[in-house]
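From the pipeline queue, job 12 of 40. The input is one protein chain; the requested action is below.

Action: predict structure.
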Amino acid sequence: MRGSWQMFPPLVFSVLLLMLPLKDISTSPLSGRAQSTLVSGGSDNGHTCLGCVFVVSVIEQLAMVHNCTAKEAIERLCNYLPEILNLQGICYLVAELYGPELIKLLMYKLNADVVCHSIKLCKQNAGQPFCHLYPSPKMGLNKSIRKANRIVRNSKVLKNTAGYSSICALPILVKLCEKIKYAIRNNLPYEDFDGDKFSAFPTLRGYHWRGRDCNEGKATVYPGRRSDNWDVERDSNCNGIWGVDPKDGIPYEKKFCKDAESKGIILLGDSAGAHFHIPPEWMTAAQMSLKSFSDLPVALTNELDWPHFSGTTGFLNSTIGGWTDSLYLRLRRRNHCNHRDFQNISKNGGSSKNLLELMKSLARNQLLDNPAIVIYASIGNDVCNGRPDTVSHMTTPNQMHSNVMQTLQYLNSQLPKGSHVILTGLVDGRFLWDQLHSRYHPLGQLNKDITYEQMYSFLSCLQISPCNGWMSSNETLRNITSERALQLSNVLKEIARSEMFANFDIFYMDFPLGKIVDEWHKLGGESWQLIEPADGFHPSQITSALGARIIWQKALSEWPRVLGKENPFNKQIEDVFKDQGGH
């Protein structure tokens, strides 16, 4: 996977590009995404080209679905976008820049590949082939592009738009981009007035990612800490339990939580753990509406991740399909004293190497805080990258061992005694090709003209594939990638078997893909539904929810001490404190 801001979407034609994993938001196969996805020179051009082809395709399809002109389709697309964050205005601004030339080209029935090459948003690097998503036109790509170039050769717009190579160059987006950059760069809440690494603001790494701060004026008040003087006067740990029972004078925190074995849950992970998701409605013309884009502002300020619906730290009802089930919700249900004690320290691009830096955003005080269950789950990026020589850039077993041991040593210096660490093995990503390659991608469903095999090939040609090893028609390469993934999983398994640490015990579990598939089949589902349809490589909401249930059941049967005992006072907590102050 790529890391941080380097992949946040560039400006190509409209703000729709912000919805795509283009320039600065990375992803990963059924997992997280490829570390160092791109070869030198391929990244910006590749992501800009992908975005252009997607947006032009959507405009063309909107015109077909609504039997309207390209100009009307552009206006319709902009009207779908919310006014929040100036998204609608930005769309109209970009439409002014590129709209006239785009309308001209679409009048000649030129496909999106040709259009984007002619307006210079797709470029052919020296010695590289023409990358195209759609089948070549009858007259051939070269002739079609020359024809398109003649149509727009006198365009003043195309000569004067070089200054808008980034969406963040637009003055009305500068402040928003700076906020997003800060959150991605530091992996900490942008809105954190007391500096305790927790926030009362939902996005920009706020409480969608870690428990909500109930007092932004005091750095000593935050989720997960042991109570201060049994929280007689205030809720110092934000679990919604404080004050004194007037019947007997005993503090509620002491009465309900003293012997409850309270503990939080922390995820160290990749884009699968952060729950990367692009709603397919954003690129399916027949399904587009105002409602389709209502979550766009939240998605943009959460890096196109949805941790609040994820399988480890999800706590809100899903609005992206499926349902929400998570280890945090189950741990909270088991013991209401665990309310709000979660941290999703995941990143698009997380791998065993860059998690070493990512985990420094961990908020846990060995002396003041409760123990924690840490889930270590980088399930694909150590074998996934977008380089042509993909195998030589995979993490080796020796590197994996070194990286994970450094992570565990750091955790041992931060976690309170009595914590637990669960190492999760890598996924077998051959599942992606097997289930999807012959199916139609959302962008190809209207005209039955784009399969996932074509999409994977296009990404590879642009040198921006999140995983050349698994998203490939080369069966031998897919097998080699899975073999390396198994080797790395065995490294984790051996570490769990042989290593000991002072402040936590350590366990290993395979990524439960097979069990998730079986459970979904029992519910009447099909395997392809377990993969995100828009990107074709992340786990879907269904996978996340089923995975949470399976992992919880394993822990309950094999490692019950990890979860702690069930709190006998849960009902009393509900009676006195209702929803404990909300999310």
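Job complete. The radius of gyration is 25 Å.
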